[in-house]
Amino acid sequence: MDAETRAVHIDGPARLELVDHVLDALDGLWADAPHVADRDRTLFALAVSEVATNMVQHTDDPNGVTLTVDIRVSSDDLLATLTDTAPPAEIDWDGVEMPDADSESGRGLALSTAALDELRHYADARGNTWRLRRRLAP
User: Cys bridge to 82: 9, 75, 127, 130, which one at CB 3.0-4.6 A?
Assistant: First the structure.
């Protein structure tokens, strides 16, 4: 990591409290990264929150599933890697779109896709890994 890179690592049971901890950690990173514009902070935090919340809400066993979050803030980009130990999730990427205004759910991946430059999901027998990246303007 270069001198301008800041990082945080968080892990624990896949519960909503962990998502709160991740957002608090992001707030701490922003304090050390004044070069990150408010718009980039807001959109990246929204995407991280949506993906992490989906990971927690779609697990059948929050006590038996671990969620690990690594976030890096550099001079060029914002990067988050979220990994869980849940069964592999099947994502219909062709079906990811913003639902109608009356819908009460289903916005998470659509919002995240719009907010990020890169959103990838990998799954295998060990669990799921999500990679979220937002490039920063020079």
Answer: 130
**Close Cβ partners of 73 (under 8 Å, ≥ 6 residues apart):** 5, 6, 7, 29, 30, 32, 33, 36
Domain ranges of the chain: 6-135
Contacts of 75 (CB under 8 A, 6+ apart): 2, 4, 5, 35, 136
Q: Give Cβ neighbours of residue 116 (< 8 Å, ≥ 6 apart).
A: 43, 44, 47, 132, 133, 134
The Cβ of residue 84 has, within 10 Å, a number of other Cβ atoms equal to: 24
Q: What percent of the chain has pLDDT over 70?
A: 83
Could you name the CATH architecture of 6-135? 2-Layer Sandwich (3.30)
Per-residue buried b or exposed e for 121-130, using 16+ beta carbons within 10 Å of the residue's own CB:
bebeeebbeb
Dihedral of CA atoms 32, 116, 10, 86 in degrees, nearest 10, equals: 180
Cα 65 to Cα 91, 126, 130, 137, distances in angstroms: 19, 11, 15, 36
